[in-house]
Amino acid sequence: MAEPKILIVDDELIVIKSAERVLKGEGYSAEGALGGREAIMKLGQESYDLVFTDLKMPEVDGITLIRWIKKMKPAIGIVIITGYPSQDTIKDALELGIIDYVPKPFTPSVLLDVTERAVQWTRGRKPEEAKKTEEFPPAMAAELDRVVAQLKKKPGALIPVLQRAQEIVGYLPPIVQKRIAKGLNIPEAEVHSVVSFYSFFTMRPRGDHNIRVCLGTACYVKGIEGVLKKIQDTLKIDVGETTENRRFSVEAVRCLGACGLAPVMMIDQETYGAMTPKKALEKISQFDPTILEAPSADEAEELAEKEA
Ligand code: FES
């Protein structure tokens, strides 16, 4: 089966180029359009299966582009790939029927994960292949449906359903939110508002181990910043990201309720106090000793300076 053709729309060339590189590396056919206006031109001239678009762009923004596609080329699947969308903009996009959302800056694994699901979505909806594929693994979908059926009659079912869904799927992408909204017979926008409001829900995939670093006042004055920097340098990810191998995610939070132990971090459900950069790495390396094998960016720089 031919790989789908993807159009990446962004007003930053660097985003287009990096998405192209990742997608082409996996055998997808991908090309870019520098902004909504150029995208509409290209969509008028050639056929595409998927459009990945930024929302905030000058002249023709993402929402306008999505509306145009839905009206003129409704068979094309749409994924949003954007930095800090407002809740209202995401709501608008969900109501227009996007497939999924990729946060920017993205890691190759997140982009490929969402692309794979978007491809399945597109294939599942093409008339000639209708219903042949599931939107996500059938066992996961069945478990999610079972949870919804079990809890839907209880008052305030949405939050417990979302909690269970996050345990099952690992995170709550739009595709999962849509399935829950349908199962509970409520608007998708309502599900999205709850997911966005509570910090314990996430729309980004997390790693096997979630590291939460407290940037609250007590931790901050005791030097948590240095701890966070060390973790970021060692795992080579920023706050809100997941490592390439999906082992770790890093989150920054305001207070973990253990100020007396400051500076504090948590790994999964375990709290660790009096952290230093060294101690933090020791704790993290208990889950994956290989993180200590490669020197961090700072250490590599130091080593290079010493060798020079
Ligand atoms: S400020 Fe860090 S635990 Fe409270």
Automatic annotation (TrEMBL):
Enzyme class: oxidoreductase
A Pfam family annotated for this UniProt entry: Response_reg
Top-level taxon of origin: Bacteria
CDD domains: REC_hyHK_CKI1_RcsC-like, TRX_Fd_NuoE
Coiled-coil positions: none
Record's keyword terms, sorted: Iron, Iron-sulfur, Metal-binding, Oxidoreductase, Phosphoprotein, Ubiquinone
EC number(s) reported in the record: 1.6.5.3
GO MF entries: iron-sulfur cluster binding; metal ion binding; oxidoreductase activity
Domain Response regulatory per the UniProt entry, residue ranges: 5-119
One BP annotation, GO: phosphorelay signal transduction system
InterPro entries from the UniProt entry: CheY-like_superfamily (IPR011006), NADP_DH_HndA-like (IPR028431), NuoE_dom (IPR042128), NuoE_N (IPR041921), Sig_transdc_resp-reg_receiver (IPR001789), Thioredoxin-like_sf (IPR036249)
Modified residues (4-aspartylphosphate): D54
Protein known as: NADH-ubiquinone oxidoreductase
